């Protein structure tokens, strides 16, 4: 018998949702065969069987969210009998029923006792009907205030406990009660709040993950911002020359130039290619792994182009295109959207002139890229007016790691590379 557990698909993943079972109870499965589809904070991925055999029991139903390490199914020997569920109305003998209960009890226990699972969500010996369905944010708030989720009635889909349920419970518990009415104090009436009608929408797992990650970033990281204008005439001319004979799917983009230029600038100002650790130390990375923010229907994901310091412009361009395509089709693997050392967010193609981005922890900085626009500028020593193609970039930096001077040096190097772009071909 083999237990199939909710896998940890990447750093920061605490729970997963069963989207659909691809196999039914009683069907044979091969080792490595996909038996279910699960949803993480970042993507939908197949859940594979660890062993060959028969899917004897499904323990977590579609739509349920459980912590990593939770047993979601049992795969037994091909000749094994189907395991009776405690919910079954069958007429199994007392001994076999007790054995099934013990098996299910052990299946509901976490894979490792040291893993910080919510005790209200997964408890040793818990039956399936006792498992609490709750969102990650609801669990986090409940843990913060020491609330047992079993006491709360969920109002989300399928009775799932969501943030508003926990906060309503918390408010009901903290409302003071008195044996006698408080003395009436005369004061001016306050205007009643106006309720604006609207439809309440449950955010997706990815949207909740984005909300939590960006909230923590802004709360924990002291952001500061440095903006610089870069002339892009020569870079655009180089781009036109490089793409003259290239097919549509193989053309180099402005974003590819920026990724390569950032890799060069990071190698010249290595202080920016760094991270702040939980031990309050700074790690400076030798490898340059650049995350590129990609907008998708569910939200935002940041695939990572690895070892940019060792790749040519065309290699970076080809890899970035593959990652973006996989991001939009939901086929990214966890290792393809984790481990960045620097990030880029480009909204230039949306007509945005400039903006600021939120740092993607644990990176020291993120570059926000605006669109290329043409405007008259003063050039040369004779104060002549000329039309130039220009682009604004803003570096959001972690002040624990970097100071303004270092951030400015990085942008100077980036400007130098893009305004004299032949170095991008090295």
From TrEMBL:
<dbReference type="Pfam" id="PF00198">
    <property type="entry name" value="2-oxoacid_dh"/>
</dbReference>
<feature type="compositionally biased region" description="Low complexity">
    <location>
        <begin position="174"/>
        <end position="186"/>
    </location>
</feature>
<keyword id="KW-0670">Pyruvate</keyword>
<dbReference type="InterPro" id="IPR004167">
    <property type="entry name" value="PSBD"/>
</dbReference>
<protein>
    <recommendedName>
        <fullName>Dihydrolipoamide acetyltransferase component of pyruvate dehydrogenase complex</fullName>
        <ecNumber>2.3.1.-</ecNumber>
    </recommendedName>
</protein>
<comment type="similarity">
    <text>Belongs to the 2-oxoacid dehydrogenase family.</text>
</comment>
<feature type="compositionally biased region" description="Polar residues">
    <location>
        <begin position="86"/>
        <end position="123"/>
    </location>
</feature>
<dbReference type="GO" id="GO:0045254">
    <property type="term" value="C:pyruvate dehydrogenase complex"/>
</dbReference>
<dbReference type="GO" id="GO:0016746">
    <property type="term" value="F:acyltransferase activity"/>
</dbReference>
<dbReference type="GO" id="GO:0006086">
    <property type="term" value="P:pyruvate decarboxylation to acetyl-CoA"/>
</dbReference>
<dbReference type="InterPro" id="IPR045257">
    <property type="entry name" value="E2/Pdx1"/>
</dbReference>
<dbReference type="InterPro" id="IPR011053">
    <property type="entry name" value="Single_hybrid_motif"/>
</dbReference>
<feature type="domain" description="Peripheral subunit-binding (PSBD)">
    <location>
        <begin position="133"/>
        <end position="170"/>
    </location>
</feature>
<dbReference type="Pfam" id="PF00364">
    <property type="entry name" value="Biotin_lipoyl"/>
</dbReference>
<keyword id="KW-0012">Acyltransferase</keyword>
<feature type="domain" description="Lipoyl-binding">
    <location>
        <begin position="1"/>
        <end position="76"/>
    </location>
</feature>
<dbReference type="InterPro" id="IPR001078">
    <property type="entry name" value="2-oxoacid_DH_actylTfrase"/>
</dbReference>
<keyword id="KW-0808">Transferase</keyword>
<dbReference type="InterPro" id="IPR036625">
    <property type="entry name" value="E3-bd_dom_sf"/>
</dbReference>
<feature type="region of interest" description="Disordered">
    <location>
        <begin position="174"/>
        <end position="201"/>
    </location>
</feature>
<keyword id="KW-0450">Lipoyl</keyword>
<dbReference type="InterPro" id="IPR000089">
    <property type="entry name" value="Biotin_lipoyl"/>
</dbReference>
<dbReference type="Pfam" id="PF02817">
    <property type="entry name" value="E3_binding"/>
</dbReference>
<feature type="region of interest" description="Disordered">
    <location>
        <begin position="81"/>
        <end position="130"/>
    </location>
</feature>
<dbReference type="InterPro" id="IPR023213">
    <property type="entry name" value="CAT-like_dom_sf"/>
</dbReference>
